[in-house]
Amino acid sequence: MLELLDPDQQIPKETYEQVYPDLEIRLGACQRAARAAGVPVVVVFEGWDAAGKGKVINRLVQALDPRGFKVYTIGAPTETEEFYPWMWRFWNLLPAAGDIVILDHSWYRRLLLERVENDQADSWPAAFDDIRDFEHQLTDSGVVLVKFWLHISKREQKRRFQTLESNPAMSWRVGPQERKQNKKYPRWLAAAEEMLARTDTANAPWTLVEATHERHLRVKVLDTVAAAMQRELDRRAAAAPPERKPMAVPADWPPPHKTILDRVDLSLSLTREQYDEELGKLQERLLNLEYRLYDARLPAVVVYEGCDAAGKGGNIRRLTRGLDPRGYEVHPVAAPTPQELAHHFLWRFWRNVPKAGHIAIFDRSWYGRVLVEPIEGFCTEAEWKRAYQEINEFERQLAGHGTVIVKFWLQIDRDEQIRRFQDRQNTAAKQWKITQEDWRNREKWKQYEQCLVEMLERTSTTYAPWTILEANCKLYARIKALRTVADAVESALGGKRGRDSFPLATRGRRG
What we know:
It is built from 19 helices and twelve strands. The chain is an alpha/beta fold.
């Protein structure tokens, strides 16, 4: 791939002076149009040390309104960043709709410096999948992603190093790492070739730039960025307006065959005495496991989903009551803010993933994308259908970082829900819990049930399985939840699992 480039590509000065001013005007116009259309742009610069990344970024931003872009230089992860999945810091840098982010180095560092110099053989192979997943999630959501590889020969790099070293003001830019890259040029070249080949996709192609001559470099970079932005603007202008409409009541629901929900035994229950006996032991066990989790630097994510009045809040309170509050955080998830809507739907959840050794508990979660949003018409059909894969990829990256993932669906039947609604409505201390929205959602039971079955079937994976809590009896659901979390953490820590069954459970008796 790189051997086919012509290192002597250049543009005559006369031609450059004719075309470059028009390119700057064109790029500025594209930026204004992208801002008006809400198009986010990410420009990635990779390439050899001394290939001219800093200079060309400087010329690129001179054509832009400084209020609409940010430039980040990506170095080694900080101590804090090391506590999170490695893509976490890049999700945090993503632009909002209409903004531009320019990266001097990027997530490709793992496939180059960390691979060649640090020889982290256990980390870089999986990075190919993580990067491809990340990039297709961005481009599928309408982000313009432009990736440049700035190429110079080994001889040219050495010549530039010598020039820099001869200048007292610039000699600091050539250190042991830069000299080592030139010395190991063939090894770096092989790693770069593989990286380019395996991450050059239809949605996120690489642009290879012969960087020996600055005029050629500037023109090719500005022209490529402007063209990519214009293609997305044209695509949006030609596309039909996105259709977001509430889901209709399914005519063929329930289906003739049994679903996963039909196999849930909602008669399971515990007496108050059985519940009290189990609760204290489990909370003490969980506290010990929380400290062991911290000591092992393993993060944990606990997700609670369920229909209105299913008991999520009470379940979370019993889970956290025995824990050290310094080691966990509860994230109640409501409708996205305007800032969150200006990003990919997973952006706000990436920002709240736990650091190593801590626990994040989500009261509702990213699963709203495939439950609430399709039913209420908050996203298009293409967006929520695509979300199943995006969610699985998100959770796979968390699991790859060692995160313990526990996902609960609290299941109750319609009769139990109406009983709880009426109890809330008739109890002064509980009336704040019931709203017109709850009654309205109840009328969409069939839609929620159909979406729920598909969600459970398509996002229950070996690394992030769903656990259904039989929640007609709140006491039973709480004990099962605490035991499930404890077993999952203990398993991740290498200990023996607790009891998988509930010998104290009874059927048909309310606790």
